[in-house]
Amino acid sequence: MRFVLSCSRLRFGLGEIVLVNKMKCKGDTSIESPSENNMISNYFGTSFLTWTQLVDCFMKRKWESDDDAVKIEVLYFVNTFLISMIKTNIISRSYIDLVECGDFNNYPWSIDIYNTTIKSCSNKFQDKPSF
């Protein structure tokens, strides 16, 4: 993405995201989703999870084991800090499955962070002139 700020042309790309967050930017972003997710069924009882439900579970420490605590904390961190959520948004089932299977450390988070940032910014810059 390129834009002008105070008469300076700026470029913002995946490389800049990686420079800031030092997270992986290469690899497979596809996530296998099992038909059942234990975290959803054990803690939320619905087929989907909202940001508000996740925050409630996190703040009230509603987990039964240390392993589940880590999963809920990782999911909270991802959706609160890496990919900021609007409070009414539904948490991506793919992210829940990724955390549930324990493979979140190998996931190329920078790609999703970049795509989310671009999507968010494109709505803000839609009516602005381009060069």
TrEMBL record:
Coiled coil: none
Domain of life: Eukaryota
Domain DUF1985, first and last residues per copy: 3-120
InterPro entries, per database record: DUF1985
Protein name (Swiss-Prot/TrEMBL): DUF1985 domain-containing protein
Species annotation: Nicotiana attenuata (Coyote tobacco)
